[in-house]
Amino acid sequence: MDKNSDAASKRADAYWKANIRLLCALMTVWFLVSFGAGILFRPFLDQFMIGGLPLGFWFAQQGSIYVFIVLIFFYSWRMKRLERKFDLDD
Amino acid sequence: MTTQTLIYIFVGLSFALYIGIAIWSRAGSTREFYVAGGGVHPVVNGMATAADWMSAASFISMAGLIAFLGYDGSVYLMGWTGGYVMLALLLAPYLRKFGEFTVPDFIGTRFYSKAARTVAVICLIFISFTYIAGQMRGVGIVFSRFLDVEVEIGVVIGMAIVFVYAVLGGMKGITYTQVAQYCVMIFAYLVPAIFISLLITGNPVPQLGLGSVVNDGSGLTVLQKLDESLQMMGFGAYTQGSKSAVDVFCITAALMVGTAGLPHVIVRFFTVPKASDARRSAGWALVFIALLYTTAPAVAAFARINFNDSVHQTAYQDAPAWFTNWEANNLIAWQDKNGDGVMQVASGDAFEGAPEYLEQTGPSGERLLANAPGAGSDNEVYVDRDIMVLANPEIANLPGWVIALVAAGGLAAALSTAAGLLLVISAAVSHDLLKSTFRPEISEKGELRAARLAASAAIIVAGFLGIYPPGWVAQVVAFAFGLAAASLFPAIFMGIFTKSMNREGAIAGMVSGLAFTFLYIAYFKLWAPQANVAANWLLGISPEGIGIIGMLINFSVAIIVAKFTPPPPQEVGQLVEMIRVPRGARQAREH
């Protein structure tokens, strides 16, 4: 019994660490497309064009939103896999 | 059929639909009333969340704001969508696993304190009432312009509709009406956008139309044309904006974190069956929201082009019908400063403040104003940003049924958000204050009755705010997001991601973040509005963006206080471990 719950809590710890790593990576992308491309690097990116729009402006008003959607579904998919791997899925 | 008849038919049909759904989905238990029984499909919940979230501000005001702000309007686009990434990754699945009914439930349990719960309830009620006042104003505008009834009667009708489905159906009724309202709203937003995109660029997809070449033979793209004509009129370029990068950064961040901390949005994720469903559901919510949010910047740019073309350098006598219609509704004004009978649009304010109309008309037939003409600006036209989306179909000469659709869509947006807000207010009163704090022995039936009573009372207060809008309402919408960012978000976040955060730290953090943000916004918006200029701001951050500093203060104070006070009891560590793993959400809700 003790052995079992010990193993279970080890699995939960490993799962949580993997989750935090994934979160850090995805939140970095989140920050880069919005605050990075849409605000801080916009003046630089605006010299390039995408679909008739300056690139920085496009990130601020269109692109960042598309990336946000992809981020959430990617996270959802990876977490499902992690949960199966650690046998913690709901 | 006249446009007026069509508007009555469209609005009447949509109202009948909402009430029909409410009767079909009545709530029988507190669990159904607070979280719709916890069995809503993630895609359905995503759609309901989108309607819950997209308020009168998103539907009616946002594109108009962007049209006049240009690049600076990006703060709303990124801020109000990026928050969903934080919600899906950092909060929603864990709160769902926790498995209770409200946000104060979580804060009160995690920080083992009735005081923490009460602080959370106060934040929640303040945020929600600020927000709801804006919805009722939206209902009032739509009714008075499109249905030709007094604002007061319009608000009362709106209240009656929300009363029926929020009080009867609770979260269950609200969820399914919100799905219907989303469909009405998105259809009403996309149809005119597609028409206008076709008219201006020949491209039926507004998102692509934004980057296309304008149909007028000039060979310029939409943004090039806007930049050129605005600069000729003395404005800054549309693609540049005028806010500082620091301010744009902070406003975007405050809106994102605020979105993630808004109680009426968070509580929607309590209604899905599993923790993993909460993640997926947030993704779907953002898909449905993005449909409107990626269309809005296109609508904004098209509206500005149409507005310039049809108003600037046009004689008032030749002014289009929509111009005089909205003038009659007090939302447009023209002051013929140079006495030439022709309307000039330029940068700067036509006059100070909102128009005060005299009961007289001028030589061209315009309504005369009591306002002193604005010094140092040639601008003669005042236009309330809120009318751009509503007037768009008329400006572009679209058929009557499109105008009727937009009226129904605006009402759907305002009512769906109002209902969601009313529900979190009533749950906070009946569940957090009554059941959990003052009268724990109350029966389930009694609690359900109290929830319905609280919802009714909240509707009446909201109605009063709509009929007698206090002048400060429009000024303090920044409160809702700033306070959510500075109070609720950090407390929930630390509750999930640290085991060591204790009661003392969480309360001290919430109170200090809240107090700082409240005082900063109140100082610049209420006590000393004349001082509200960039030179006086802390680090150049406007009241709209200060919530992010409030959040940092909350985190710092909480961490320092927690270091010097006793650690949380052992059960809290187990609770945190429980919410971090998804397994067991179904079982947890059986007990």
Strand order, sheet with most strands of chain A = 1-2
Give me the Rg of chain B, rounded.
Answer: 24 Å
Shape category of chain A: elongated
Secondary structural class of chain A: mainly alpha
Query: What assembly state would you assign to the polypeptide chains in this entry?
Result: heterodimer
Structural class computed from helices and strand pairing of chain B = mainly alpha
In short:
The complex is a heterodimer of chains A (90) and B (591). By secondary structure, chain A is mostly helical.
SSE layout:
The complex is a heterodimer of chains A (90) and B (591).
Chain A: H1 2-40, H2 42-45, E1 49-50, E2 53-54, H3 55-85
Antiparallel strand pairs in A: 1-2
Helix pairs in contact in A: 1-3
Chain B: H1 3-24, H2 30-35, H3 42-53, H4 56-69, H5 74-98, H6 103-110, H7 114-146, H8 151-201, H9 206-209, H10 222-232, H11 245-260, H12 263-266, H13 275-293, H14 296-311, E1 314-315, H15 321-328, E2 332-334, E3 342-343, E4 357-361, E5 367-369, E6 381-383, H16 387-395, H17 400-438, H18 444-467, H19 477-497, H20 503-527, H21 547-563, H22 570-580, H23 585-588
Antiparallel strand pairs in B: 1-3, 2-6, 4-5
Helix pairs in contact in B: 1-8, 1-17, 3-8, 3-13, 4-14, 4-16, 4-17, 5-11, 5-13, 5-22, 6-7, 7-8, 7-17, 7-18, 7-19, 7-20, 8-17, 8-18, 10-14, 11-19, 14-16, 16-17, 17-18, 19-20, 19-21, 20-21
Structure, explained:
The complex is a heterodimer of chains A (90) and B (591). Chain A has 90 residues and is mainly alpha-helical. Chain A has helices at residues 2-40, 42-45, 55-85, and strands at residues 49-50, 53-54. Chain A has a two-stranded antiparallel ribbon. In chain A, helix 1 packs antiparallel against helix 3. Chain A is elongated, with a radius of gyration of 19 Å. Chain B has 591 residues and is mainly alpha-helical. Chain B has a domain at 3-35 and 44-207 and 222-303 and 399-474: Amino acid/polyamine transporter I, CATH 1.20.1740. A two-stranded antiparallel ribbon of chain B has the order 1-3. A two-stranded antiparallel sheet of chain B has the order 2-6. In chain B, helix 4 packs across helix 17. The longest helix of chain B is centred in the first third of the chain and has 51 residues, at 151-201. At the A-B interface, helix 1, strand 2 and helix 3 of A face helix 5, helix 11 and helix 13 of B.
